[in-house]
Design brief:
heterodimer; A: 573 residues; Rossmann fold; Beta-Lactamase; Helix Hairpins; six-stranded antiparallel β-sheet; 15 helices; 18 strands; B: 123 residues; alpha/beta; binds adenosine-5'-diphosphate; binds magnesium ion
């Protein structure tokens, strides 16, 4: 490709559109100082009226949010009148949507306010450079169809669709019947075919060209174009023979050109076999060059778009998590408040109830000989008093251990069930899991689901702490006098890992809601604070010992509670 | 001889009914104290056989009074039962009646419950 550049004698003309006078003026001063001709307008409407007076411009730098005609509309309008005008978008709040939209409509780049003038300058220069290349290479009339193509390319954000459009455009521009578009796989550093015309299916599927090998590999590695005369060019997987490159001025039967931006190689575009049997002209080669540049920009945009999509997705995941966490917090906060509230109410109500009951019993003693109606009435009053008391006790029971379902269960069962769930959900990352169960049948009285949630969290934390593998030991035992429970008998579940350990200063923060060292791994910092809340609701304790570099042991201590023979909940009042 | 029961509670109506009801059984004589600050002196002068003690009272709490009685040779052997409307633990409802080494009864309490408790402790 002939890359001679013809510099224009005239100063490049730049129109700056922004509703903030300070930005307009500072940009104008700066750009004029850098030897550009600079005009300004305060909004899209003013800009359009300026342009309608036949003022030619090379570059438009525009704000997005402006009164009257905004930046996006201005951009559309300007591109419609003159597709050569390059556009750089300035934006105060970089919302993903508007940025992508601007790029789709054909903006060259966007820059967020506040910006660095020199950064802007380098974007301006790159942008004008591209324009010069394009305009100088090809006569305006030849570009008419190009711009149709480039606009539709710029509009497609879906990668597959984009690649097909580029290839289709290459074939249309040159009249070739065969073509392929190869993209670079960053990891394996090989090229594979992502879009093709006139090629057999197995060639499309199986072609893997290492960078530097064959024509495509060479074109890609050196980021240039090669053209020449080879029969069945596209069928050849490797072109090790030399001599395929055509001499200057001779007209080749194939063209292979790199798709690359300033700092990134995307792939290679190949065309061959013109329908009329003719060769590719210099003009067609130039057009392919421009197309390859357009494709590179579009691919860059597409990958930017993908990145943005991923960011949006991540953001949504985070928001979901936050919402859940908030709901949980509100829930537990509410329950705690309800618990306090009910305890207070209970006290206030039970005192007068005691007086009523005393009064009724007083009357009963004195009126035992009265008529039957009175005795029955007193009996009913007494029952009602006791019922009111029962209601209050029920309210307390409901409010206190956050509507948990309590049952007698051994620690052995709790651990095995949680572990089964954990191993099923979490892939074994080189971690050896060992268990040591006490052989007694000591039980605790707990909400099974809540305790399993706690254990699950502890297992996750332990495996998180051992990214390079290690061992996870889970032990249960009975302690007749556990100091954490005031020397009362306890059942203990211990989760010990050989992981990275916890620093002394972090050790004190572990139970703070939202404390996490796993920001990069999507930690929520709620695992341990929830665990603490749950265990303490069960009148238990959760203890952590850790040594940096050695590992961590978390102990869940729950009060022993043996099931009584023929126990019944005799809460008549 | 009738056993003497002392009731220390700031709810005078509660004290009144309890006194009447217990005395109606003809088994006990009852002394009530509704000013917590006078409680200890009243115990010493009355020397009751058993004390029912409210937990939350203005001036002095039930546990404070109980502590004081326990640490005085004159009064340390008098059985003390808390009568409380506060429900701290399920045990109270399950009539195990013992929390932190003290005996409890939960308000409202039925007369027959009280009588049984007095008989057991003074028997
Ligand atoms: N077994 C462990 N080994 C090392 N660090 C741990 C362990 N368990 C917890 N931690 C530390 O405590 C922090 C808080 O844990 P947690 O509350 O479960 O939230 P999360 O796991 O989401 O970060 C973790 O980010 C980690 O730094
Ligand atoms: Mg965790």
């Amino acid at each position: 490709m002939n890359e001679t550049e013809v510099r224009s004698n005239e100063k490049p003309r730049i129109l700056v559109v922004d509703d903030e006078p300070a930005i307009r003026d500072s940009l104008r001063m700066f750009l004029e100082q850098k030897d550009f001709a600079c005009f300004t307008a305060e909004n899209g409407e003013a800009a359009l009226s300026l342009l309608s007076q036949d003022n030619f411009i090379n570059l438009l730098i525009t704000d997005l949010k402006m009164p009257k005609v905004g930046g996006l509309d201005l951009l559309k309008e300007v591109k419609r009148h003159n597709p050569f005008v390059e556009v750089i978008v300035l934006t105060g709040y970089p919302t993903v949507e508007t940025a992508v939209q601007a790029l789709k409509i054909g903006a060259y780049d966007y820059i967020t306010k506040p910006f660095n003038l020199f950064e802007l300058l380098s974007i301006v220069e790159r942008c004008l450079e591209r324009q010069r290349k394009n305009i100088n290479k090809v006569a305006i009339s030849e570009l008419a169809s190009m711009f149709e193509v480039s606009r539709s390319i710029a509009n497609s954000i879906d990668k597959g669709e984009l690649l097909n459009k580029v290839l289709q455009a290459a074939l249309e521009i040159t009249g070739a019947t065969c073509g392929s578009l190869l993209l670079l796989d960053e990891q394996s550093q090989t090229l594979s075919i992502k879009a093709a015309r006139g090629l057999p299916e197995e060639v499309i599927k199986n072609t893997r060209i290492p960078l530097g090998e064959g024509i495509s590999g060479k074109v890609a590695l050196e980021r240039r174009s090669i053209c020449g005369n080879i029969k069945n060019f596209l069928y050849l997987r490797s072109h090790s023979e030399n001599g395929y490159e055509s001499k200057k001025d001779s007209e080749p039967t194939f063209v292979s050109i790199a798709i690359a931006s300033q700092d990134k190689l995307f792939g290679v575009l190949n065309v061959s076999d013109k329908a009329d049997g003719e060769r590719f002209t210099a003009r067609e080669q130039t057009l392919l060059g421009i197309l390859a540049d357009e494709a590179a920009i579009a691919l860059e945009n597409a990958s930017l778009y993908e990145q943005l999509q991923r960011k949006i997705y991540d953001l949504n995941v985070t928001i979901d998590k936050l919402n859940q966490a908030q709901a949980q917090l509100i829930q537990s906060e509410k329950l705690a408040a309800l618990g306090r509230f009910s305890a207070g109410i209970a006290h206030e109500v039970k005192n007068p109830l005691a007086i009523v009951l005393g009064g009724v019993e007083y009357l009963e003693a004195r009126l035992s000989a009265a008529e039957e109606n009175i005795v029955i009435a007193l009996q009913k009053m007494k029952e009602a008093t006791l019922r009111a008391n029962a209601i209050i006790l029920n309210l307390l029971r409901f409010a206190r251990p956050s509507n948990s379902v309590l049952e007698y269960v051994t620690c052995h069962d709790l651990v095995t069930e949680a572990l089964a769930l954990f191993q099923y959900r979490v892939p074994n990352r080189n971690i050896r899991i060992e268990t040591e169960f006490a052989d007694d049948n000591a039980t605790v009285y707990v909400d099974r689901n809540q305790i399993q949630q706690v254990l699950f969290n502890l297992f996750s934390n332990a495996t998180d702490a051992m990214p390079n593998g290690g061992s996870l030991l889970i032990r249960t035992f009975f302690d007749p006098r556990h100091s954490a429970l005031g020397d009362k008998p306890a059942c203990v579940m211990e989760v010990t890992d050989t992981g990275e350990g916890i620093s002394p200063e972090n050790l004190s923060k572990l139970f703070e809601p939202f404390f996490t060292t796993k920001r990069d791994r999507r930690g929520t910092g709620l695992g341990l604070s929830m665990a603490k809340m749950i265990i303490e609701n069960h009148n238990g304790k959760i203890l952590i010992e850790s040594e940096l570099g050695k590992g961590t042991r978390v102990s869940v201590v729950l009060p022993l509670k043996e099931r009584k023979e023929n126990e019944k909940n005799s809460n008549d009042y | 001889m009738k056993k003497t029961v002392m009731i220390i509670d700031d709810e005078t109506d509660f004290c009144f009914f309890l006194k009447q009801n217990l005395e109606d059984t003809k088994e006990f004589s009852v002394v009530t104290v509704s000013n917590a600050l006078e409680a200890v002196a009243k115990v010493k002068s009355t020397k009751p056989d058993i004390i029912f003690l409210d937990v939350m009272m203005p001036g002095k709490s039930g546990p404070d009074i109980a502590q004081e009685l326990k640490s005085d040779v004159e009064t340390r052997n008098i059985p003390v039962v808390f009568l409380t409307a506060i429900v701290e633990e399920e045990e109270v409802n399950q009539k195990k009646n013992i929390i932190g080494g003290w005996l409890y009864l939960s308000k409202p309490v039925k007369l027959q419950e009280l009588v049984r408790m007095i008989r057991e402790l003074t028997g």
